[in-house]
Amino acid sequence: MALLSPLLAIGLTVVAGFIIFALIGVAPLEALYVYFIEPLTQSWSLQDLVVKATPIILIAVGLSVCYQSNSWNIGAEGQLAVGAIFGSALPIYFPAWHGPTILPLMLILGAVGGMAYGAIPALLKTRFGANEILTSLMLVYVAQLVLDWFARGPWRDPAGHNFPDSRAFDDGQLLPVILGDSIKLNVVFMLIAVVAVWFLIRKTITGFQIATLGQAPRAGAFAGFSQARMTLFTFLISGGLAGLAGICEVAGPIEKLRISVSPGYGFTAIIVAFLGRLNPIGILFAGFLLALSYLGGEGAQVALGVSEQITRVFQGMLLFFVLACDTLIFYRIRLVRRPAHQASLRTAEAPHGNA
Amino acid sequence: MAALQITKDFATLRANDHIDFAIRPGEIHALLGENGAGKSTLVKILYGALQPTSGELRWKGKAVTIPNPAAARRLGIGMVFQHFSLFDALTVAENIALALDSAHRLAALRERITRVSAEYGLPLHADSIVADLSVGERQRVEIVRCLLQEPQLIIMDEPTSVLTPQEADDLFVTLKRLAAEGCSVLYISHRLEEVRTLCHHATVLRHGKVVAECDPQKETAARLASLMVGAELRELSAPQPVSASAPVRLSLKNLSMPKPHPFAVALDRVSIDVRGGEIVSIAGVAGNGQDELFDALSGEARADRADAIAIDGVPCGRRGVNARRRMNAAFVPEERLGHGAVPRFRLSQNVILTRHATGDGLVRSGTVNTAASRAIANRVSTTFDVRKGSPDPEASALSGGNLQKFVVGRELDRKPGVLVVCQPTWGVDAGAATTIRQALIDLAEAGSAVLVISQDLDEILEISDRVAVISQGRLSVPHDAHGITREGIGLLMGGARAH
Asked: What is the least distance, in Å, from the CA of B31 to any CA of chain A?
């Protein structure tokens, strides 16, 4: 049952994709092949798949903790950006620092930055009752503008021909490659996070608190669990993992701070969390699927000349279908006979009618 | 309405076994039986919520199939549910508007609600939000909603369980008037005295079969009860007198609490002492501060003074619920599902809910000890005869009576020195109610202090040593329960002050 809805959603997305490709005048079967199969046929694109899936999964497992406790962090994209800014401060202010300590410190700073930024909507909620969905989402745009300002302003590389980038980080300031040509150490962080979150939810009393407060807040209070503390805790976890993902992008594939460090991984992770049923193992699979949608989108753009927006279209359809399947699996649509209802409506609404 | 040879199978379980049953116009007909006897199944078939496996329904002599509740309502069959089907976020009027099959203007509907509720002695504000209503008030919404549809057959599932005797009497007047007007009433209740005074006819179900039909006015309550359970009911042992020198184990001193939300009740200088070995009951109509008092006692809401509440002489008004549990106090709230237990959690997980911080070894260096919690769940299930379909089912899979036995048993298993329990047997069948009440008496006899917040006067008179009444957030002076009558408590519950 838990698998039914995501699998149905994937099937429906493929069908809808077929129709969309046909409508925009692209051979649908070829397009679907380019989109979903071709990226899986070559070693470099498989590695690229892992590189793209890593931050998405890292963020999504954090968000799953949040969502299970009934807190709604929509701002992982912003926490990612702040993590990238915090972590980048070291190599930018100390370009000559190459010792073994700088990379761990960058990673810690990145996670701390994400946590601090995630704590803002949590505190706004617990102190003032502000809706965390709105505040965390709005803070994304603030974070992106701050990142933009750093990259164009104080942290721009003076020798960078006026490009809005920081100086390129050196080897000691970058994550080492551990597999193939491009898979870096952050894959290990991602796997650790998957296992750790699984353990947290399934085995610990904290996981029990998360589930209790998420499902029955009144029972949570009766058990002596604090909703406010849990809100802060889950925002710190999800923010921290998003921040870690942010600095790992900068110290990974990008190798410097830019005005944009993510193609929307923080938002894609929301889809992944739900597609993976808020379960770390499910999220692992869902993360690779959504990473494929990025790769397929790029492939389709090059091979078929369709807009790069096709990635967004596929991701949107996937979320739409998974939510729709969830709803329709649990609820039945019944058509109600309209005439009888309207007749009674008329008698009720028109007491001075010609009856 | 008549049911002929109605049979309903759920997989291997036969919930209704060739049931014959008829209710005549103007008759108040009681349907008796323990939880699990098949009452709910039969009623759902009559109301169109379930379809019989075999058998026939007749309405006014004609064979009918009732495909759904809307069809039942069109025929003129209305139902008042025991478990409320109301939307918390909507007002009373909006909830009622939703249930009516035809569209109504809200203003006109509000007026009708006010009129009908006043007419039938069920005071309601059409604009109150349901979330802020007490259980008793929610039930009134259900009753009024049903009456608005002008039904010819009303099915009532435990309608009086949260009313005062006077309110119940008013309802009986209403029901009798409806019956005199030719409306039939199918009346499900565990209160046998009530059935005896009100109903013309009774059908008793046991294990899905009709075991007796009788005129309840000619039977004793004991005989009805034994028909239901198939054996003579165990008599409760009489409470032992408590010596005045027994230590005070739970003490409230001028406990005042502000309203937690605009529709709640503020507590006003509530004082009471409960001694070891004693059961003290707090009677009162729903919505007079019982929920607020329970939250203050459990520590879910904290008092502003530490000495407002003392357990075994130690002030704890500012402490949280787990700190009070560690002082050997235990609490059982009124709502079983969603407050006392998490519906989608297994029983073993629900054990952890209240016992994770009380030194039961359920949490070891941050991880949950599933084996230990399962052992406790099994122990509680055995001791309190919790009947369940699988070894460790989700709480929502248990019937009301069995879940209540589990929720009470989970706390009694700790042998608490102080027990605060709210509505211990609400909506629970006679057998389970006896088990629970006897367990409370046994606990008190072992030297614990037991405070019962209840709206069930039979229960209060049966188990209490002393009784006080809460009204509008104020508590009366406690009376000796042996020298008080139902009417005496009833008058206090209606707002008369004891001072």
From this structure: 32
What is residue B303's predicted lDDT score, i.e. its pLDDT?
Answer: 92
Predicted ipTM of the assembly: 0.81
Kind of pairing between the strands at B184-188 and B153-157 = parallel
User: Chain A partners of B353 at a C-beta cutoff of 8 Å?
Assistant: 212, 219, 222-223
User: Does B422 lie in the same domain as B366?
Assistant: yes
Number of domains in chain A: 1
CA distance A258 to A84: 10
Examine the domain organization and report whether B372 and B336 are in the same domain. yes
What CA–CA distance (Å, rounded) separates A45 from A15?
24
- A196 lies in some domain: yes
3-state helix, strand, coil in chain A (%, to 5): 75, 0, 25
- Measured CA to CA, the distance from residue B410 to residue B373 in angstroms comes to 11
Q: Which amino acid is at B203?
A: T
DSSP B469-489: EEETTEEPPPEEGGG--HHHH
Beta-carbon separation of A347 and B357 below 8 A: no
The CATH number of the domain where A118 resides is what? Answer: 1.10.3470
User: Tens digits of per-residue pLDDT, A16-60?
Assistant: 999 999 998 888 999 899 989 999 998 999 999 999 999 999 999
Same domain (yes/no): B344, B434: yes
The reported pTM is: 0.75
Compare CB distances from A219 to B339, B356, B368 and report the shortest one's residue.
B339
Chain B positions in Cβ-Cβ contact with residue A222 (cut-off 8 Å): 298, 300, 321, 331, 333, 339-340, 353-354
